[in-house]
Each structure stands twice: as structure tokens, then as C-alpha cells.
Amino acid sequence: MTRAGVPSPGLSEADLDTPALVVDLDALERNLDRMAVAAHAAGVALRPHVKTHKSVTIARMQLERGAVGVCVQTVSEAEAMVAGGIGDVFVANEVVGAGKLRRLARLAREATITVCVDDAGNLDDLGSAVLRAGSSVGVMVEMNTAEYRAGVPPGEPFLHLAQRVESAPSLRFVGLQAYNGVAQHIRDHPSRLAATERNTARVQESVELLARHGIRCRVVSGGGTGTYNLEAASEVYNEIQPGTYVFMDADYLANRDRLGGPFRDFEVSLYVLASVMSRRRGIAILDAGLKAISLGNGLPLVQGGGARYKRFADEHGVLAPSDGPLPALGHQVRLIPVNCDPTVNLYDRLVAVRSGVVEAIWPVDARGY
Is 207 helix (H, G, I), strand (E, B) or coil? Predict the structure, then answer.
């Protein structure tokens, strides 16, 4: 250990202080390779979303495998990526507020920056900030894909906003953002496919409408871990932006593939390592509760089974038996988060492990907002 609580390379995983956020390097690298191969085979650009891992190191690994750039969700994430040397960043979200727009416009003097818009007033504010900064920002008009999501409706509203972007001197119209977040978590494949096809038809109509008015949609971007192969095969999207595939989580593991079996395109490579700190009759108490793993979308899975995560408190998690004996006092347990993104945001570092030995410590560079 280099200092209290911070492991050093060469340490055994069994000797890690817990709770710890651990990455299985072999599984991570296989996931990165599989997505890169899939995008290349389909002839689409891969622009992975780094809100999942918030790590410059992993972003570089993705770029080394052919990614054209990265997606982020916030200006802070964009700043962290650019500070780490990532030169092409798409903020796949609307940015509102004078302070954030000012930061975004200044950042565009250091890297290629693109951002979403879905409102004419916000577009004007963005244009003014960029003019004052003396930079240039690319714009993706976001198309609404579902109730309770951002974006302008397809058709005329989309066209009118794209035309306003085209006329803004400080802005570059890049294309159309249509990420169908709801479809990512539709469990059965036929329903997930049908939802994606409906959305893709609307996207194509908007692209064709723009073309009839002399506006070229250079980039049509969307597609997440649950539907990446569907958008990639659509011949409408030419860029996909999956994020969770690097780590996987219990939510995506609940999806089914086209044959009705488990969705296993990618492997779980991220887990929270916890220890049994107390044993009582019929339960084992872990040192991993709300402060160690995101529980907003549900309770984590216990890797290997034998027990189930039943209850939680701030610092504690309770295991109950399922189909095997409960782990003994001091025993380590791997927990698979239901949602890996907010779990990563709880930690300062990722512990990269290969074959049970710590190989590297990676900072969570974009932690926070």
C-alpha cells in the first residue's frame, strides 16, 4: 500500500481494503475489442460515452481501438477529458446557463467540441458565448425519442432549428442526435427491435427533410449498449455512442438476445469488492452500503450466487442466503451494480486487476458534475 487505503501495483486482490471499485482488465479489454470490431464491421463510427467510466485512461484505450472521439454528459466531464488530452468531445446533452456556456465556448479553443441543442433561445445563448470566446462549436440538433426525454419533435420543428444553426456564424451544424434511451432497457429482443425501428424511421424522415431543404446531416448519432447493433445495421445512423459495454451491469444483464437467451455480448468487468464484517443468524453484513454502491435502480447481484443482497444502510449491506451458504466473517464478495455509472461516480479511483493481482490504479478523472 502506498498510503492509507490506496493500493499499489503488485498487491493481491485478496489484500485490498474494502469497499473497493475493481476492474477486471482481461474482461474490460475483451469488451473494448468486441465493440470496436462490431462498429468497424458495420461501417459506423464509434464514439463511446465516457459518463460510464469517467476515466481518461479508458477513453484513451477506446481511441486506440479506433473510436473517433468521445461523448460526455456534462461540461465538467468535457473539461476532464480535454485536460487529459482527448481532442474530440461531443457533449451529448443540452448545456444551459451563462457560466457553463462560457466554459464550453472557451474549451472549444483547445479541442473539437460539439454540443446538443433543442431550443432556439438556448441556441442563441450558445452562439453569443462562442462569439465572445472567439471559438467555434459544432451543434447536433437533438430529436426527441420518447416521453420525458429532451429533444425537438421530428419533422418541421427539427428542420426549423437546424436552419437556425446553419445561419449562426459561430456555430457549425454537424447533424442529428437521436439516442433512444428507453429502448436500451426493453428486455425482450423483438420489442427492443420494434422500438428501435420505429425511432429509426422517424430519424430517416428528418434526415430526408433536411436534405430536401439543402441541409446535409453529416452525422446521425445514437445507439447505446442495448441497441448498438440495431442502429449500426440501420443504414441511417452512421455513429453509435454506447457506454456501459465497457463494464456492464446488472440492468443490462437482464436483457435478452434475439434467441431469447441472456444478453451476453459483453462481460461484467466492474464490481464493488466488499467484505463480511459481521455474521448473525441467517445473514451476513457487508461493509458496502449506500456510500459504496449506487442503489437507486435496484439491489446489486452477488457474483457467483449463493447469496442475495437484501437490505442496505449508509455503510452496510445485508446478505441473505439463496442457493448456498453465506460467506464467512472476513470473506470478500464481488457485487455487480445495477447501474455502473453512478457507482463509479462514488469513487476516486478504479483498481485495475489482472489474474487476481493489482496492475494499475486509475483516477476517476471526471468524478462529480
Answer: helix
